Predict the 3D structure of the following.
Amino acid sequence: MSAVKPLTALRRGGRAAVCDISPAGESHFAKLAAFGLLPGAEVRVLQTWPATIVAVGHTVVALDRMMAAAVLVTEEEGE
């Protein structure tokens, strides 16, 4: 099993599963949840700079560094 790491640690093209969210506050949690970034969600990193852009299902989401760092993931094997 892969180690838990922040979403910001993944490279472009990386795939991972969200395992936890550690937002700075309730409003951040609500935003991440509204984007579909909840435990169990599969994400694919499309871009890492200047914002982290990920695909979650059929949704594409742009996150600043602080929000992306709050999303903890386990990278898929072979990535």
In short: The radius of gyration is 11 Å. The helical segments are 26-34, 65-69.
